[in-house]
Design a protein that fits this description.
single chain, alpha/beta, Alkaline Phosphatase, subunit A, 5-stranded antiparallel beta sheet, binds zinc ion
Length: 409
């Protein structure tokens, strides 16, 4: 059996007054997702265990069938894998955002969706001025700054196990929009060094010619780096060994690709996939359909609805959902006619309410249709429809076995 998974990141939301009391999923025209709901079943899945932070890394692990309480060590080590960086048993990875904090408040955790070239140049400045060997509390470590995509970059602390511990924590910057950052700095063992690096980046970035050219062009600048999401490399059992299925992941986001790669899925690169609202939805759909020929599980992740929520843009969120439906779900449903022994699952990783512009705990709606799945009464894919059926998968990592027909509902 083949399984297609479409992840509209952060799509689950609350009723909006600007949408006449409907949620973005309800307001969006989604004939493809509604067809999945009509032909199959709709329910709620809880991808974020209570003691975990509601973020894409934790929720994606659940969605891929892994219990975050058992395997999660932090966001950055997952991204390191996608960036081709190998972590030794004593190494730590730390997410190094480029952020816009012009007045002590987190005005933009993306530094205006900073372009890759500028991001890379700023990471090179960090490496040159702050990277390399150093002593922390008498312990020798070595710092490596690695450019990633746009604002999403990485700091690797070789030998970090001697400095940090599980009590070392950082604040996800996307969850403190417009808040003063002073109360949200890293805490725990090794946090002094992290705070020192963040502080040191302020003057380095201010004098950078790359940032100055962003000001001249009217863009937001990266005023500093922001360190968080730290952890050691996780140990994840191979997906094929666990479930007997060969998987592929399509995503523009290093984090999601990294989780896929760590469980042994093939990463399929799609030209024009940006991880933002301007992504090439149709290309992702086409590459996903092609991947079906050679894989049992094909997962297409689209970041756009989450980004729209972080920006508080209800219209952009609705249109991102519509694009996913018409350019990915619709063509995929047609392609699946050639694979009668198949299923399709639509499920966001977590909620990102427009009201808070931040990720939140709570179950998300899923729709699953295909071979062996009998239709329930739902005829629409939405939060309300999922509540109505009364079907709940909690913890959410149990849904994968059910979707693969290895366990019944
Ligand atoms: Zn997410």
């Amino acid at each position: 059996m083949k399984l297609v998974i479409v992840i509209p990141d952060g799509a689950a939301d609350e009723p909006q007054s600007s949408l006449g009391g409907r949620t973005p999923l309800q307001a969006a025209k989604t004939p493809g997702m509604d067809e999945v709901a009509t032909r199959g079943i709709v329910g709620l899945s809880n991808n974020v265990p209570p003691r975990q932070t509601p973020a894409s890394d934790v929720a994606t692990l659940s969605l891929f069938g892994y219990d975050p309480d058992q395997v999660y060590t932090g966001r950055a080590p997952l991204e390191a894998r996608a960036m081709g960086i190998t972590l030794g048993p004593d190494d730590w990875a730390v997410r190094c955002n480029l952020v816009h904090v012009p007045d002590g408040a987190m005005r933009d955790f993306t530094a205006g969706h900073i372009d890759n070239a500028t991001g890379k140049a700023l990471l090179e400045v960090l490496q040159e001025r702050l990277g390399g060997p150093r002593k922390v509390n008498g312990v020798s470590v070595s710092l490596e700054f690695h450019p990633g995509v746009s604002y999403r970059n990485l700091l690797v602390v070789r030998g970090g196990a001697a400095v940090f511990s599980a009590a070392t924590k950082g604040q996800p910057p996307h969850d403190i929009p417009d808040q003063q950052v002073a109360g949200h700095l890293p805490i725990g063992p090794g946090s002094e060094m992290l705070k020192e690096i963040m502080l040191a980046s302020v003057p380095l970035f201010a004098e950078s010619p790359f940032n100055k050219s962003r000001i001249a062009a009217g863009h937001k600048t990266a005023t500093q780096c922001w360190l968080w999401g730290m952890g050691k490399a996780p140990v994840l059992k191979n997906f094929q060994e666990r479930f007997g299925k060969k998987g592929a992941i399509i995503s523009a986001v290093d984090l999601v690709r990294g989780v896929g790669q760590l469980i042994g899925w093939n990463r399929i690169n799609v030209p024009g996939a940006t991880g933002y609202l301007d992504t090439d939805y149709a290309a992702k759909g086409r590459y996903g359909i092609d991947a079906l020929a050679t894989h049992d599980v094909v997962c297409i992740h689209v970041e756009a609805p989450d980004e729209a929520s972080h920006e508080g843009r209800v219209d952009a969120k609705v249109s991102a959902i519509e694009e996913i439906d018409s350019k990915i779900v619709g063509p995929m449903l047609e392609a699946l006619n050639r694979y009668p022994d198949s299923r399709i699952l639509i499920e966001p990783d977590h909620r990102t309410p427009l009201r808070t512009r931040a990720h939140s705990h709570g179950p998300v709606p899923f729709a699953l249709a295909g071979v062996g799945i009998r239709s329930d009464k739902a005829s629409e894919y939405s939060e309300a429809a999922a509540h109505e059926t009364g079907l709940v998968v909690d913890p959410g990592h149990q849904l994968m076995e059910k979707a693969l027909n290895l366990k019944s509902f």
